[in-house]
Every structure is written in structure tokens, then in C-alpha cells.
């Protein structure tokens, strides 16, 4: 596996640990529908939380969360709708981004951006 794939997997694992520590119940990881993938689907306080994990080795060119484009949002929303129908979930949905960046010492920092986007952002 390529180094960037290893880093991405490590970032997702850290995001899951972070979410669990903060009271989230992980429902599924790497949910796929057509061309879309949702990194993490969780539940907290009667909400379904759709989480996109973005990791970068540096923020020189852009912050990780800036890599979530309109086309990516459309794919995530499409997959989220399919998940809700497939598993008959009738709860409020929130879309979050977890950004993972190393600091100057090499420690990975997590930033959890709640309500990072909505279905309206895909238009």
C-alpha cells in the first residue's frame, strides 16, 4: 500500500478513536455507493453523522477540509441518501469533516468541523 494510503488509514483510525471518546457510536466505516464513499457514519444524540476524513501531510497548499469540493459533497450526499434508505434510518442528518494535520513535531492534530456542509452546498 502506498504511503499516502497508510497515512489516510491512520487518519481515519484516529478520527474513529476521537469520535468514540466524544460519545459517538460508529455505525459503519467506508460505506460505498456507486462512485461515492463515506469514511465514517456515526450516531450521536439521535442524529446520523456523515463524516468525511481529510488528512494532509502539510497545509502549505490548502487545508484538508478545503479539498471537500462541490462534486465530492454531491457524491457524499448521494451515498448518505442511499444509506438512510438501505438501513431505514429516519433521523436528522449532519455532515461533518474531520481534518488531520501533523504539527511541527510530527504529532497528528484533529480538527472536528461539525455541520461542515449541507445538502444545499451541493447545488
Automatic annotation (TrEMBL):
Superkingdom to which the source organism belongs: Bacteria
InterPro entries named in the record: Restrct_endonuc-II-like, tRNA_endonuc-like_dom_sf, UPF0102_YraN-like
A Pfam family reported for this protein in Swiss-Prot or TrEMBL: UPF0102
Gene3D superfamilies: 3.40.1350.10
UniProt-listed HAMAP family: UPF0102
Family: Belongs to the UPF0102 family.
Name the UniProt record assigns to this protein: UPF0102 protein OH806_05425
The organism of origin for this protein: Chryseobacterium oryctis
Amino acid at each position: 500500500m502506498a504511503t499516502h494510503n497508510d497515512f489516510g488509514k491512520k487518519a481515519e483510525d484516529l478520527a474513529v478513536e476521537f469520535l468514540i471518546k466524544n460519545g459517538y457510536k460508529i455505525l459503519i466505516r467506508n460505506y460505498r455507493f456507486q462512485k461515492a464513499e463515506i469514511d465514517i457514519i456515526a450516531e450521536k444524540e439521535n442524529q446520523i453523522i456523515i463524516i468525511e476524513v481529510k488528512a494532509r501531510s502539510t497545509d502549505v497548499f490548502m487545508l484538508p477540509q478545503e479539498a471537500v469540493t462541490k462534486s465530492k459533497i454531491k457524491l457524499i450526499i448521494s451515498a448518505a441518501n442511499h444509506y438512510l434508505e438501505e438501513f431505514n434510518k429516519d433521523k436528522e442528518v449532519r455532515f461533518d469533516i474531520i481534518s488531520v494535520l501533523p504539527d511541527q513535531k510530527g504529532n497528528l492534530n484533529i480538527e472536528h468541523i461539525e455541520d461542515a456542509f449541507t445538502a444545499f452546498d451541493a447545488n
